[in-house]
Every structure is written in C-alpha cells, then in structure tokens.
Design goal:
Layout lengths: L4 H12 L13 H11 L3 E5 L3 H4 L7 E5 L3
Parallel strand pairs: 1-2
Length: 70
C-alpha cells in the first residue's frame, strides 16, 4: 500500500492483534514480492485495488484483502 492514513490504520490493526506487518514497495518486481511472501508465509495480504493485477501474478492461495477508498 502507498503511504496513507489507511495504510497506518491497517498497520496498527495488525499490530494491535498481536501479528506482524511487512510493508512492501508497490514498485518492487513481482519476483522479489514472491520471495518475500514465500519467506514470511503470511495468512493474509492487505493491498490497494491499484495493485490487484500485480497480485494476481503471485503464487498465493490465502486471503488478499483489497482496501476501498471513500
């Protein structure tokens, strides 16, 4: 997610629930993102709708939650 209040809220929500968060730059090559996902084994990914097409290229079978801006 890009830097925004929504990103901070998601980050704080994850920490408040006792989990960890790993911000990933949206400009990173998909191979690098895949390596991070494979290493961390996240149960869920929070993302912006703008990165939807990029995330479809990941080998990831768990929940991907897309943010909605009002």
């Amino acid at each position: 997610m890009e830097k925004s209040a929504e990103n901070i809220a998601a980050f704080m929500g994850v920490l408040y629930n006792g989990n960890f968060s790993c911000p990933i730059d949206t400009e990173m090559p998909i191979d690098r993102v895949q390596l991070i996902v494979d290493t961390l084994g996240p149960l869920m990914i929070f993302a912006e709708a703008a990165t939807k097409d990029k995330l479809k290229k990941l080998c990831y079978d768990k929940d991907i939650v897309m943010s909605v801006t009002c």
